[in-house]
Amino acid sequence: MPKSSERHAVIPESHCDILESRCYPMISTLRPDGMLSSNPVSIVWDGDKIRFSTLKDRMKYRNLLADPRIALCAVHPDNPLHYLEVRGRAVLEDDIDRRFVNQIARKYMDVDEYPFDPPGAARVTVTITAEQISTPYMGKVGGPRD
Amino acid sequence: MPKSSERHAVIPESHCDILESRCYPMISTLRPDGMLSSNPVSIVWDGDKIRFSTLKDRMKYRNLLADPRIALCAVHPDNPLHYLEVRGRAVLEDDIDRRFVNQIARKYMDVDEYPFDPPGAARVTVTITAEQISTPYMGKVGGPRD
């Protein structure tokens, strides 16, 4: 596993609109069985860090507990050519008072309390420490994907 | 790295519509520097295998050449709750006659020839051998992401 970089990469202003939107970025994690995994998440960006919420019984939590490496790719909901990739490490913190998951609910659902958890659900907030950021320039090519 | 499984996982019929759509799935790969990467691709699915195209000078090609592990997550363009994840390995083949990248062009652009490559571009077709497939059931929860 590579050493954690001291550098904290900064999101370029040109791509902040993506993180502010109701996008559903994909995260990449490594499973304990050695396979890669890719899953959608809802995020809140506070102008500095990207965060998402998960549950302790989810695979992505177990993956990140065992190996904090993570990548996130966020595409603007209205423009598939406008996206950014963040590569870094995840920091996990219990969300005991559900303050963070309720931020997700406010951003994505316009409600004050996240309504879908079963009783006793153990919420965790995942903060991504960005070490590398890619913002491919798509102005002169056909698309980001081919 | 885990051993390649002999099993060839089959896409459930309930999720074939996603792969037939003009979706832009995200792939996860491992970089030679040890970081994870996540990037959008255009795919063609022939009813058996998922394929995408890349260029030999792209990072995702170099990543997969060094480590064939890959995950792909495809979301239906009209329904963010309807998605599937495929985990497996990538097989790389030169697309010398550009037959495959032109299939991408027909599916996504309604043109017969992929129009955006620079002269001399070296096209590679990536075929995903699916070893594990997840199709989360979202019917009774709020979303796939939280």
Give the assembly state of these chains.
Answer: homodimer
* SS summary, helix count of chain A: 3
Overall spatial form of chain A: globular
Return residue spans of chain A where pLDDT drops below 50 for at least 5 consecutive residues: 140-144
SSE order of chain A: HEEEEHEEHE
Tell me the strand percentage band of chain A: 35-45%
Major pleated sheet of chain A:
7 strands, antiparallel
Largest interface: A-B, 48 and 48 residues
Q: What is the CATH topology assignment of chain A?
A: Pnp Oxidase, Chain A
The CATH homologous superfamily of chain A corresponds to Electron Transport, Fmn-binding Protein, Chain A
What is the percent of helical residues of chain A?
10-25%
| CATH class category of chain A | Mainly Beta
User: What distance lies between the first and last C-alpha atoms of chain A, to the nearest angstrom?
Assistant: 29 Å
Instruction: Summarize model confidence as the mean pLDDT of chain A.
Output: 91
The whole-angstrom Rg of chain A is 16 Å
The neighbouring-strand order within the major sheet of chain A is: 2-1-5-6-7-4-3
SS-derived structural category of chain A: alpha+beta
